Amino acid sequence: MQGSEQVLTVAQMRAAEQALIEAGSSVEALMDTAGRGAAEWIWRIAGRGRVTVLCGPGNNGGDGYVIAESLRTRGADVAVIAAMPPTSQAAEKARSAYRGDVLGPDAARSGEVFVDCLFGSGLTRALSAEHVQLLTSLVAGHGQSIAIDVPSGIDSDRGLALNEDLPTYDLTLALGAWKFAHMLMPAASMMGTLRFVPIGVEPVAGAASMISQPRIAAPDAQAHKYKRGLLAVVGGEMQGAAMLAAHAAQGAGAGYIKVFADSAARAPHDIVVDTGRLSDVLVDDRNTAVLVGPGLGRRGEARERLAIALGDPVPVVADADALVLLGPRSLAGREAPTIATPHEGELVALERAFDLDGTGSKPDRAVALAAASGMIVVAKGPDTLVAAPDGRLACAPRATSWLSTAGTGDVLAGVIASRAATGVDAFTAACEGVWLHGAAARLCPPAFSANQLAAAVPKALAACL
């Protein structure tokens, strides 16, 4: 895993930096690399314009002094506001190397770009009221605002704002590795555009990863519909949801989509609907994956359909109503992978079903549920995560907020199930499905419908070939 693909906790990041130091680098050298790398991005935005850098007492403040000096030597009109004197040796050296103006926290300063280097990713306590006011006034007094590593006042591991009324930023520059706050709400919503500044961090064993654009091969020249994968979609009380999921699945790679429903009325002409007994459909040994849940309902018949679906010895994607009905007994004796796609409410229901207390951050909860249930867990929402029973964790990049409309979860389930039907492993199928879902949304116009989203999936897939 490359440095730009891993997502690290504060403890993992500190250990990774220490490993670089033990290999011959130094805190000062890493600070110089980070500061100069960040200054490159800021220079592109500000040029010779008026820049204000707010520096705190620690190494994040030291990064700020390096940034300011780099911009000053290029000709920018830069000044530092020192909220507090440096307290680390590396920050003191960076302060000594800076040849520009240093102002006090009460200085009135405005300009084109404000750079927040007050506190970094290790902060776990709330900011003082004075610091919140200082940040707010500086953001308001500049045309654009940039946070270095994470905005001040953010809990990096949990993605939480430690204060109310913190300002939002136009750009956040992640130093050395992505942090969970870059992916998790509400913090991620405050960061604007994200960019990465490498400092040479090596891959960290057991680290989470960022879900990136997958590489998907076109079907073999001699492929046929069954060779590409047969996905069985189990319908229920609300047939439209199953049809929507099937529509999305058609564009995600599987060669044959078959919906089991009570009636074929109003079904699209290009979706095969089987109105026979579900037990007959799911003993078809050509099935390579099953999707159950969209529109399933929660009555006795729904429980029976879920049990039959989980009895098929192929990967099963459980979504929507299936997640409310799912429990340890449902999975007893099951050997093939199961992928669960809960939103927050369904995640809580599954935690109760598997006797979990639901405490901790969203990554903690997803990993705990995956371990307790043996399922791949796609904890979806504006900050989607994919967790595996073996501890693997992947974080989706932020997707468009226009996804917050009815039916988009059915589309996601269909896309993941389709990828699973093609034969890739369940964790990979979940990650590919999440990426394709987000990419398809970016291809849609604002205020799109779930049907428009499903129709955009083939274009998203084409980008991966």
Task: Report on the architecture of this protein.
With 465 residues, this protein is of the alpha/beta class. It folds into two domains: 202 residues, YjeF N-terminal domain (Rossmann fold, 3-Layer(aba) Sandwich), CATH 3.40.50.10260; 233 residues, 3-Layer(aba) Sandwich (UDP-N-acetylmuramoyl-L-alanine:D-glutamate ligase), CATH 3.40.1190. Helices cover 37% and strands 18% of the residues. Strands 10-1-12-21-20-19-18-17-16-13-14-15 form a twelve-stranded mixed beta sheet, with helices on both faces. A seven-stranded parallel beta sheet has the order 4-3-2-5-6-9-11, with helices on both faces. Helix 13 runs parallel beside helix 15. The longest helix is centred in the N-terminal third of the chain and has 20 residues. It is elongated. The two termini are 21 Å apart.
